[in-house]
Amino acid sequence: MLTNTNPGTVKHGVAYETISGITVKVYSTSKDLPSGTIEENERKYIRLWIKNTNSTSKTIKLSTILGYEIVIQYLQTKYMLMKEEQQYILEDQQHGLVT
């Protein structure tokens, strides 16, 4: 869940650390999109699907960003900012972690 405690409407995004063998997608049934705008005191519910195809366990860092336009260049060096066009995963593919 993402909540905007800032006054006014701001842009929001979900970002994740890029690690080889890790796939992050948004469930097609997710109530909200991984990027867009969020109004003051509004809540967004974004369901993520995470799959690890490595032979060992991995830790991945997930972040939510409000007003992200200023920091987008910094994030792109280590994190992938999810876009509205992000490939979606169908609900019946029950592998990975839902958050």
Can you characterise this structure?
This protein has 99 residues and is mostly beta strands. Helices cover 4% and strands 37% of the residues. The protein is built from one helix and nine strands, in the order βββββββαββ. The chain has one helix spanning 72-75, and strands at residues 2-3, 10-17, 22-27, 35-38, 43-44, 48-52, 62-66, 79-81, 88-89. The model is unreliable at 93-99 (pLDDT under 50).
Q: Helices and strands, in N-to-C order?
A: EEEEEEEHEE
Question: What low-confidence regions span 5 or more consecutive residues with pLDDT below 50?
Answer: 93-99
Strand fraction equals: 35-45%
Overall pLDDT level: 77
Number of strands: 9
Rg estimate, integer Å? 14 Å
* Morphology: elongated
Please render the helix and strand layout as text:
Layout: E1 2-3, E2 10-17, E3 22-27, E4 35-38, E5 43-44, E6 48-52, E7 62-66, H1 72-75, E8 79-81, E9 88-89
Parallel strand pairs: 3-9
Antiparallel strand pairs: 1-5, 2-4, 2-7, 2-8, 3-6
